[in-house]
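Collaborator request, handled under Task 6.
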Amino acid sequence: MAIKALGFDIDGTLYPHWMMILSGLPSFITNPRLFIYFSRARQALRENPDYLSHLPFRKRQAKIISQYLKTEENRVGEILDRNFYKLWERSFRLIKPFPGLKHTLEELSGRGYPLGVLSDFPVGDKLSFLGVESLLSCALSAEDCGYLKPHKKPFLILAETLGFPPEEILYVGNSYSKDIIGAKAAGMRTALIINHPRDHYEADIQFSSYRELPAYVSALEEKLLL
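Structure tokens returned to the collaborator:
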């Protein structure tokens, strides 16, 4: 079955992971305890994805953090919005894409592939800062889907938004445990951007440079059509 569309993670996938860490420093410096509890809460929601699943994701996240901080959850939500999300978003003005990213997306789009993104974090203006916003047909946050990666629901929503069944979508990410495992669980083909390929990783493609990706996609297409 042919590849009909591609999906991409953002942070660490469209630009280097170290830039993501650097962008998060202002939030960590402003409130290190909040930063640590934010990470713990998200890990808890990965391990128990159905915890209070009737509530919006941000409320579930704030409730967990409020238990650590012993602070009313509405207050936690306000602090998170001000001292984490908005502060972090301002820092993204400094991010730069991986070399060859825009040219590769242009080439893939020119071949007729619809392109979309699915990130665990809010997309905000990241795609604009990276200079690729016009090349993408949809941009989703797993938070808005109610579940973080590697839960398969965000990937299924991405497939629905792109308009193709999961098995006709190639998802590109930098995290094996979140991006690749999650996309595979949803039935997608997968591509892992990684400096050094690993034999035990079950990804359809492993690549280290965006300049290589179009050729890998072509090779995968040929393999699937045999």
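The cover message to the collaborator said: "The first strand starts at residue 5 and ends at 8. The first helix runs from residue 17 to 30. Please let us know whether this matches your experimental observations."
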